Amino acid sequence: MDERSDSRVIGREPCPGCGSRDNLARYDDGHAYCFTPGCGHFEKGDGDGVHSNGRRGDGSGGTRRAFRAVNAEFLEGTVMALTPRGISQETAAKFGVSVGRSAQGKPCVILPYRDRETGLDVVAQKLRFKDKDAGMPCIGDIDAAGLFGQHLWRSGGKRVVVTEGEYDAMAVAQAFNLSWPAVSIKRGAASAKKDIQQSLEWLEGYDQVVLWMDNDEAGKRAVAECVPLFSPGKVRIVETPQ
User: What CATH number is attached to the domain comprising 196?
Assistant: First the structure.
């Protein structure tokens, strides 16, 4: 699992790999990572090796891939607090969420999704606009992605929370000081069963899976469809007032 999972951002710096002004996040264990899509600049906390262009040392004389974007159409943005949603810059940096502009020039929040098998490559980006009528278009291959935020947490543990939306997952993680695993389904309540099936092996590694969907008819239907996928007694359900 990535060594950054349990560390916290303490500052932002210019990236020596791509030249971005402040996309290099410095963590409290000394390591740093650039969130500019396609960069992948990584600095180990112990000072052993600085790597760019999507590769980093594995300590054995060889190399293994670092996080990188795999689609030339992916957007670049700046990591910042999502104030209207109450999401701090630290939380946004943890999840790799940034603010930029769509290909049509419209301001948007860029939500990255990483490869389901390794958690390394950015394989899709979902865009969120202030105007809800603009929809939530997706760039890349969302079907190849894990749940939103899945790559951040180790495989297995006491509890993981699964929400219906990316903002909800970030809010839950933030409420527990970014130490409590929280992820989101990819395509909304109607596709919750498919999304969870694709990441079922990873979810089953936790003692408890907390399903926290929206308390509307679509959310309730999603919970009813997803509970039978899990081992008996594993699922807990959170219901919030409408």
Answer: 3.40.1360.10
